[in-house]
Amino acid sequence: MKANARAVIVGGGVVGASVLYHLARAGWTDVLLLEKSELTSGSTWHAAGGMHTFNGEANISRLQKYTIDLYREIEELSGQSCGLHPNGGLMLAATQGELDSLKLICSRARYLGMETEMITLDEAVGLNPLIDKQHFIGALWRADGGHCDPSGTTHAYVKAARKLGASVERFTRVLELNPRADGTWDVVTDKGTVHAEHVVNCAGLWAREVGQMVGIELPVLAMEHHYLLTDDIPELKGRSQEIVNTTDYAGEIYMRQERGGALIGTYEPHGKVWSPVKTPDDFSMQLLPDEFERLAPYFEVGFEHFPALGLAGIRKAINGPFTFAPDGNPLVGPVRGLRNYWVACAVMAGFSQGGGIGLVLSRWMAEGDPGQDILSMDVSRFGRFATPKYTSIKVPENYGRRFRLAYPNEELPAARPVRRSPIYDKLLASGAVMGANFGLEHALWFAPNGTPPTETPTYRRSEAFPIVGEECRAVRRTAGLYETSNYGKYEVTGRGARAWLDKVFACRIPRPGRLGLAPMLNPAGRIVGDLSIACLAEDRYFIVGSGFAEEFHLRWFWTCEPPADVFVRSAASTLCGFSLAGPNSRAICSHSPVRIRARSCSVSCARILRPPLSSSSTSRRPRSVTRRPS
Prior knowledge:
This protein is an alpha+beta fold.
């Protein structure tokens, strides 16, 4: 085994293999993948192998399209078949809300240049004759997608990477990851120690444990996942083409053809966590016990919507663990406080996303920039609030919603409240409908007396629309107070603060008593942050930005290496904030400045936040101004 490597990748599943290939393709030929057992032996080997471009995030959808297109390239380079079945994708809608969702997906896909269209149910049955169309009202077809062979695809990545100079060591267990003072790593294995400039955690089911080796707790958890393989189905006999991979929102199932039969899987509402505390070291190429009684009600919905499946015998049942993050998206990128330590884990949809993740991570490592906005996959989107307890509550919630609609006005209830400001109870007493931003509860709008403080998830106008409209009009007529505690807040102090900030931000650093906009740029000139900075004194600065990006900003500040005479800290959990806006705001401050300062967290705040709708003095906080500091 090598004694030195530019990068060591821990984990030999499809994601680790993709990262290996992409680093080698980027010119990092001195890279080494370590796998404690056989390649694919964690979750990859028992995956259904589905690939598609469906995603609510446009940038992730692009990466999924890249992944699917990449398979032909690695087949040609490696000489290894990926077992591709590019038969496209079909999504079925049973309700108006589901149909609205499909129309949104369709318009987004067309914007991205992907071949897709809304089709009739008769056309859908032509693509999949197993559909009983009486249960549905519409369908979306997409050309990109299908399924592949998990083992063949992973080995194609590895063979292509080896041809570019990369190395793989199987049956090599990583025991320790020890950082050196220069930012490099000693990777201690049961076959010796490798000195590496970079370490990449692609350990899948063991990503949590590999994170703990360096003192971090990654928000990742494994869930048991079932799918069934049927006997041959007469309705599929004699067809010249496979049926199109099909997703049934209402039935919460997915299906595709498998030889002469079908594969059908479900994401049941009450999923089961696997190994919640520690992943067994000796788990390799194993499946979990079947639980037909628990899953029967969910599969029966599929048998009703696709009657031929209910008449076919069950040839085989697969139950294996897959890892998830609390919101279902992967965890990708560098970790603050650990030089040259990277993660690419919690990638449940590995055969849709693995190639794209390998691409952006290799760019990030080689060029210092992922090449596009991937904040929805960035590991920094979770802060310290994402504890193991939080993860254990949110992951099952996400799993059970895998095939449910994500409405733009929907707030998920699990693991809340996590973080609260001092006026949280006052807001609730005033009728606030709460949202969560980076774990912090904040008011979205206020229900009038006698109106339930709830909002129905929808793609159309909800019951909150007229109320929020009146809130906005009231602020425009008079004034309104809203809480800004959910913004990210940072203090930078020290003798060298101004000089250091002048390097961090692409703006003139304001003089004492002044405030200014402060964009952050990476070496390629791309914006990585848009904040506001106030100079409180020559050696003291206050910075405000998006609360969702707090960990992202802190990581960037850390990467910019503050000198010994500069101190940076987050003040998000110690400072609250309020914004008063509207034509009467100056008069309100002038009339009773002491009262506002002294009682803003008690009676006065609640009184200003929740007047009657017809009030002519002030108003509730409008939703339209919740995202940007004033």
